[in-house]
Amino acid sequence: MAAEMTDLSPTSVKEHIEEIVNQELELEEGELTDEADFVEVFEADSLSLITVVARVEKEMGVKVPSEELPELTNLRLLHAAVVRHAEGSDA
Q1: Residue-level pLDDT, tens digit, the chain, 91 residues
Q2: Nearest 10 degrees: CA dihedral of 63, 68, 74, 76?
Q3: How far is the CA of 29 from the CAs of 15, 38, 65, 72, 76, in angstroms?
Q4: Alpha-carbon distance 62 to 74, whole Å?
Q5: 7-16 burial, b for 16+ CB within 10 Å, e for fewer?
Q6: Contact 21, 27 (CB under 8 A)
Q7: Are 75 and 19 spatial neighbours (Cβ–Cβ below 8 Å)?
Q8: How far apart are CA 28 and CA 60, in angstroms?
Q9: CA 58, 63, 67: angle at the middle one, nearest 5?
Q10: CA-atom Rg of the chain in angstroms
């Protein structure tokens, strides 16, 4: 069942995104930081990044426009995009 953004606190939103990233990029607990680049630091490929965003969208009920995907290079930027699109735009 998808967790709607309204059901989650800001901390829970970030923790849920972090959990998805850790699972999809096969990272150990504590390895992921806000600023670590998914591609440069964790050697993620474009398919794994698309999978991360697709899971975030499905599980959190938010749509991130595909044109933004290249900009979502770390946890901080991905979290900001999710919050931004959950709050205001139906894009």
Answers
A1: 455 665 667 679 999 999 999 999 999 999 999 999 999 999 999 999 999 999 999 999 999 999 999 999 999 999 999 999 997 644 4
A2: -60
A3: 12, 15, 29, 21, 17
A4: 18
A5: eeeeeebbeb
A6: yes
A7: no
A8: 22
A9: 125
A10: 12
Q: What is the DSSP letter of 61?
A: T
Which residue has tokens 């991905």?
Answer: 78
For the question of whether the overall pTM of this predicted structure is more than 0.90, the answer is no
Largest separation between any pair of C-alpha atoms in the chain = 34
| Torsion of the alpha carbons at 82, 83, 89 and 91, rounded to the nearest 10 | 0
User: Do residues 62 and 36 touch, judged by C-beta distance below 8 A?
Assistant: no
